[in-house]
């Protein structure tokens, strides 16, 4: 994204800033809003949140005067350029926007908002890996047909890793492993109750922290990275080795080379590299090897590139700008999924039990190859929505299937989109792993 600052300067100078709507004014959304308020050439124009006061706080953080904010639910604003708040995403989409940032972290809300925004001809930036891992391939395909950009966010770990991946891939290096560091201890059976004290100490929602500790968030993020690169998990749940920069290349070698991997071309997480992201690549030409040794990257032929930070939603405005200025995603699925995060029972589940979603007491996520998930009809964790009813017994540690659950009579949007995704890519056959190039903008 070289020179993107100059493009933003140009937009500021001519009075044509990128106009953005935000859905979800929680921790991530608020940080995005605050950063936009310090930037040139981009404006946060509307915020949707179930708490209108929190939505207004986000607009204030973005630089607007509180007394100038309008309530979009009270009726149309006489001035479409005035900042507004709403509790209904459809109201936000009526604003004169260029892009929407989805930051709820809820698969159903994310799918609903992204689908509607694409239909409205808006770029979509997802700060919602849970929705992306579940229906991102379909949303990316729909965006391509509509002539808009669907993308994950810069600063989120999949996006930060993808930047390293693209760098190596463009230079002609073979990418062997790509992934992230994990700083939370892994306990697949963690619940909001078991992590409550730590959540209070850190000022976090206990359910959100549980989704980190039980590994679901890591599995979902690596699923997003896999689907955007074609890399796959080596084994269900990946290896999760403990390593640092001095040892990670040796740990993530093939078994035949003294490491743990059965193959290269994989996504992984590593305990000991947080909060950074990494790529292990191979150089083969003697001159390349000599140069990389000269710059002290290692002895090779396998080398690691490490970015020791990811700035989460502080970087999200760059994905908005990249979409609006260059018409390009930061990270998006290539086509049909190559990986899936499926739901595994945290405890024995009985018929009539109700699932309680990501970070709850009933299921955690496990990243596996998509071919296995399709073959065995395994349930994506993004479809284990709160209130979903268990239809037959599932033992603790077993992966749930579609046949193990029943949804409400009014089918969730994320389930509808997932059905369309599965049907679409099944019909495409061997071409399913590539999304068509973006088409020309839609006719007015």
UniProtKB/TrEMBL annotation:
InterPro entries: DRL_cat (IPR048423), NAD(P)-bd_dom_sf (IPR036291), SAF (IPR013974)
Domain SAF: 340-406
Domain of life: Bacteria
Xref: SUPFAM superfamilies: NAD(P)-binding Rossmann-fold domains
Stretches the record annotates as Disordered: 425-444
The name this protein goes by in its record: SAF domain-containing protein
Source organism (scientific name): Thermaerobacter composti
Lineage of producing organism: Bacteria, Bacillati, Bacillota, Clostridia, Eubacteriales
């Amino acid at each position: 994204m070289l020179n993107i600052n100059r493009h933003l300067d140009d937009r500021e100078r001519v009075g044509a800033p990128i106009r953005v709507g935000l859905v979800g004014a929680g921790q991530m959304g608020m940080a995005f809003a605050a950063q936009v308020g310090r930037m040139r050439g981009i404006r946060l124009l509307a915020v949707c949140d179930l708490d209108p006061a929190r939505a207004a706080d986000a607009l204030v953080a973005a630089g607007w005067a509180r007394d100038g904010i309008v309530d979009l639910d009270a009726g149309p604003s006489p001035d479409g350029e005035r900042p507004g708040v709403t509790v209904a995403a459809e109201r936000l989409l009526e604003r004169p926007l260029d892009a929407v940032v989805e930051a709820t972290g809820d698969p159903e809300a994310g799918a609903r908002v992204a689908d509607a925004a694409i239909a409205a001809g808006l770029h979509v930036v997802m700060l919602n890996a849970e929705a992306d891992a579940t229906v991102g391939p379909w949303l990316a395909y729909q965006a391509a047909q509509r002539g808009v950009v669907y993308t994950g966010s810069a600063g989120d770990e999949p996006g930060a890793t993808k930047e390293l991946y693209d760098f190596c891939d463009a230079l002609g290096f073979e990418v062997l492993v790509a992934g992230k560091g994990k700083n939370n201890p892994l306990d697949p059976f963690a619940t909001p109750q078991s992590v409550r004290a730590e959540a209070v100490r850190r000022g976090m929602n206990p359910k959100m922290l549980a989704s980190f500790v039980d590994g679901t968030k890591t599995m979902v993020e690596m699923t997003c990275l896999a689907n955007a690169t074609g890399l796959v998990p080596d084994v269900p749940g990946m290896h999760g080795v403990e390593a640092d920069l001095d040892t990670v290349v040796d740990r993530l070698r093939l078994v035949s080379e003294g490491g743990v991997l059965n193959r290269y071309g994989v996504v992984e997480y590593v305990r000991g590299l947080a909060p950074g992201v990494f790529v292990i690549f191979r150089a083969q030409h003697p001159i390349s090897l000599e140069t990389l040794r000269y710059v002290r990257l290692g002895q090779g032929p396998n080398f690691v590139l490490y970015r020791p930070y990811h700035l989460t939603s502080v970087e999200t405005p760059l994905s908005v700008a990249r979409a609006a200025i260059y018409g390009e995603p930061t990270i998006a699925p290539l086509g049909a999924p190559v990986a899936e995060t499926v739901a595994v029972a945290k405890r024995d589940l009985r018929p009539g039990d109700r699932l309680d979603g990501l970070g709850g007491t009933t299921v955690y996520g496990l990243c596996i190859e998509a071919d296995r998930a399709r073959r065995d009809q395994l349930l994506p964790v993004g479809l284990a929505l709160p209130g979903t009813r268990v239809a037959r017994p599932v033992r603790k540690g077993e992966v749930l299937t579609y046949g193990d659950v029943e949804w409400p009579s009014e089918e969730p949007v994320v389930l509808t989109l997932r059905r369309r995704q599965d049907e679409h890519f099944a019909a495409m056959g061997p071409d399913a792993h590539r999304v068509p190039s973006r088409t020309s903008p839609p006719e007015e």
